[in-house]
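Worked example 3 (structure in, sequence out).
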């Protein structure tokens, strides 16, 4: 494959995200946001969208998870070595924070697309001898520390990111895409640059807000107010003292605080939510902003297992160049061949599980997969709410085994309890239903589990799943979803064809009529009376659903389709 040289002057879009997940060996991401950012950059490389990425080095990694035999989680740093994957760049820039110059340098990581086009991504780094000890830690931990640490990090990424791109030779950036609000300080920097000298800094008229808006694109990912970063104004003043950002105009504040979502909305011309449902929720949270919907996707080439890649290569030779178009043809696959390919992926996964956990999971048993960040609203343990019922289901409908994976944030007691609950039920059901928990959920496990089970389960409390993406990975491997109607699944769900719903059919149902605790009955009933019988007794219909998952969902819920929407609606519609 030829390599297309990077012409820095031609790069028009700068994509900022606090975390980016590209490969398993670079553990700088915590979950969906980072994986999405990585998948977006990969699609940009495949489609030759003139982009450049900016993220944080997170040198100590998003932790190594240790689980003891009761499921108690402890965390350790997960050191990695930037020099093994990226090149340190010469330029060093400084940003004044807390009255001191903080120096920032960058490591260049290259993502190469299927046609040889390259996207450079800059991982920002403050851990070198020009900075005092504390400031050297700013690029160590993703989502660690207190508000002060957080705001300093966000200032390093937003303001430092803009400056270092200029120093590196990116002189023609037309759009700055803030993927989530963390990067919003970049808008403050752009704003300051439009300042009319003789006017007071705290007045919005002092700046050319429209000019900044034309340069900014913002994607929000969080459907709950608590999920939006906000900072006390005294902290803001203290961090930005003696700089241009000390007096932020009141119009850009929300309830007297620096709310990063609000700031990003105010400073962008185009903003979007990550599914249609999430758009509705976001419109309620931030009235007055015409928020668009661009539903997330996954990078098809990354998330299709090797056995399925071979199948696609055989029947749809050009699929890699355009999965958006070609995967629609999945109904053409011979059923037996598709099933064999699935069994190959399933065996590979179960071998991995059995080796890791010293277990005896069997390839001919119906296998349910569940892997996500362990946090309260995702309810990892919902399916284990009534262990006795689960045993009954297996007795009546056919044998079942379940594999879980996921890390809880170090400061999330509910997430940690969910994991312990799973370990407890695992012991209780021993010999009747085998349950395994894989330590250290990461990109590798993500790929194995979303291709190696028979059914992908997702049961968040509505409407807290902005989009969700792991179900899309499952679709790429012909695995039907069983999921609460939230996020992307409202768009991807066709009952008995692409999978099944959990809970009320009408997702627009009023809050008062929705009882999340009842979801579990629906989940059990579907398993017992619909899903497991279909799996064991009507394999040809099951395989038809596998094909539908690929043809209808994988073809659409990928980052090629998604990025093309960003290109036409957000990046280049004025050019
Ligand atoms: C895909 C993925 C996620 C995000 O999955 P969701 O369903 O969106 O929660 C998180 N972590 C890893 C390692 C993944 O591969």
């Amino acid at each position: 494959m030829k390599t297309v040289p990077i012409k820095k002057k031609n790069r028009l879009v700068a994509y900022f995200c606090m975390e980016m997940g590209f490969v398993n060996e670079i553990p700088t991401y915590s979950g969906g946001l980072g994986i999405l950012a990585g998948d977006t950059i990969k699609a940009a490389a495949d489609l030759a969208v003139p982009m450049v990425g900016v993220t944080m080095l997170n040198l100590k990694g998003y932790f190594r998870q240790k689980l003891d035999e009761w499921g108690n989680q402890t965390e350790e740093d997960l050191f990695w070595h930037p020099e093994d994957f990226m090149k340190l760049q010469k330029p060093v820039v400084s940003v004044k924070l807390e009255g001191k110059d903080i120096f920032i340098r960058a490591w260049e990581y290259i993502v190469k697309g299927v046609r040889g086009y390259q996207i450079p991504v800059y991982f920002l780094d403050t851990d070198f001898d020009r900075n005092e000890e504390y400031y050297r830690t700013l690029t160590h931990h993703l989502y660690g520390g207190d508000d002060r640490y957080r705001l300093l990090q966000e200032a390093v990424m937003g303001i430092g990111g803009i400056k270092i791109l200029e120093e590196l030779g990116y002189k023609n950036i037309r759009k700055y895409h803030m993927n989530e609000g963390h990067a919003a300080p970049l808008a403050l920097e752009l704003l300051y640059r439009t300042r009319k000298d003789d006017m007071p800094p705290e007045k919005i008229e002092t700046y050319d807000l429209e000019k900044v808006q034309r340069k900014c694109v913002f994607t929000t990912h969080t459907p709950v107010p608590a999920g939006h970063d906000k900072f006390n104004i005294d902290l803001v003043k203290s961090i930005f003292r003696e700089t241009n950002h000390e007096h932020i105009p009141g119009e850009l504040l929300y309830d007297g605080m620096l709310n990063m979502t609000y700031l990003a909305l105010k400073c962008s011309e185009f903003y979007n939510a990550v599914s249609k449902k999430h758009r509705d929720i976001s419109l309620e949270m931030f009235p007055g902003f015409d928020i668009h919907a661009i539903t997330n996707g996954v990078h098809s080439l990354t998330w299709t297992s090797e056995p399925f890649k071979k199948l696609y290569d055989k029947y749809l030779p050009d699929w890699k160049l355009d999965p958006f178009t070609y995967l629609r043809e999945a109904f053409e696959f011979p059923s037996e061949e598709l099933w064999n390919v699935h069994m190959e992926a399933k065996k590979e996964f179960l071998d991995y599980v059995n080796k890791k956990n010293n277990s005896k999971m069997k390839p001919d048993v119906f296998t349910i997969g569940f892997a996500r960040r362990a946090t309260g609203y995702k309810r990892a343990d919902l399916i284990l709410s009534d262990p006795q019922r689960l045993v009954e289901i297996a007795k009546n409908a056919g044998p079942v085994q379940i594999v879980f994976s996921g890390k809880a944030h170090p400061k999330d007691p509910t997430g940690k309890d969910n994991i312990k609950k799973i370990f407890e039920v695992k012991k209780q059901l021993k010999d009747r239903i085998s349950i395994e928990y894989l330590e250290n959920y990461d990109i590798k496990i993500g790929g194995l589990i979303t291709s190696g089970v028979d059914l992908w389960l997702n049961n968040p409390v509505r409407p807290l799943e902005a989009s969700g993406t792991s179900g899309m990975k499952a679709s790429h491997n012909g695995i039907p979803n069983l999921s609460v109607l939230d996020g992307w699944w409202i768009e991807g769900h066709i009952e008995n064809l692409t999978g099944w719903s959990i809970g009320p059919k009408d997702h627009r149902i009023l809050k008062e009529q929705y009882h999340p605790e009842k979801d579990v009955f629906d989940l059990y009933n579907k398993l017992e009376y619909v899903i497991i019988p279909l799996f064991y007794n009507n394999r040809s219909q099951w395989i038809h659903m596998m094909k539908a998952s690929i043809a209808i969902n994988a073809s659409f819920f990928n980052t090629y389709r998604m990025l093309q929407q960003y290109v036409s609606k957000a990046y280049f519609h004025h050019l």
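Notes: The two ends are 31 Å apart (CA to CA). Residues 31-32, 35, 372, 441-443, 446, 468-470, 473 surround pyridoxal-5'-phosphate (CB under 6 Å).
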